[in-house]
Design a protein that fits this description.
Shape of chain B: elongated
Number of helices of chain A: 11
Strand content of chain B: under 5%
Structural class of chain A: mainly alpha
Distance between the termini of chain A: 21 Å
Shape of chain A: globular
Radius of gyration of chain A: 17 Å
Order of helices and strands of chain B: HHH
Oligomer: heterodimer
Structural class of chain B: mainly alpha
Number of helices of chain B: 3
Radius of gyration of chain B: 19 Å
Number of strands of chain A: 0
Largest interface: A-B, 58 and 40 residues
Number of strands of chain B: 0
Strand content of chain A: under 5%
Largest sheet of chain B: none
Largest sheet of chain A: none
Distance between the termini of chain B: 50 Å
Helix content of chain B: over 70%
Helix content of chain A: over 70%
Amino acid sequence: MQGIQWEDPEALSQLYDRYSGIIKALILRVVHNEAEADDLLQEIFMEIWNQAKNFSAQKGKPLGWMVTLARRRAIDKLRKKQAYTRAEERLQREIEQQPEAWVHNSTEEEILDGDRRILIRRVIEMLPPPQQQAIELAFFRGMSQREIAANTNTPLGTVKTRLELGLKKIYDGLKELRDEL
Amino acid sequence: MSFEEFQNCARMFVVGALEPDEAAEFEAARREFGEKAEAYIAECYSLSEAFALSLKPAKASDQVKTRLMEMVRKRQAH
């Protein structure tokens, strides 16, 4: 990040090589469109280049900062799309058909691919499915607690509790894993 | 708001799950707890990192990097 703050293009090139796969996966998870994800990926790395001066290591690691920026941009894109309503309808169908999307997205191939991912997924998958679903909808869909409540026909207070409990368990689980990651 | 309640809110904050009224209370508590609050929030970003790292990385088109680096170099040339 320091190299980018000093406006060294080679530093951006290295950062891109290291993190573009993760950032694109995140964008794709939100927008579900390959071409849009590539466009957004380029915009986000340009924004990283432009905003690097605002990054402070005291406020966290570069990846956390980039993920926050990428997630925000991807959700903005999703919301701006005129097809947002249709996406919501699709999501509603997904929820009805497959209420534990995060759990079921884990395939055998994925489990073999990358120790760090396996460990993180293990922590996430320890949560009861309703907690996973609430976190998935908040983080990857940018839904508010009220939107989650409406989309899952769940009382608002229950949604809040699921988010709080789920996030605490993941946070504590990650802390225990810190040495292994 | 106690610090334990603040910690709950901080975890919700980093994943964008606070409602507007909660966000206002959170910001007030954040100012009140100062550096201790900022340090905890920085730790909470491990959550958003973990959610991104839980996904299988996706291959970007080679053209994306080419275009990006061209834009950066053009900007530097100006």
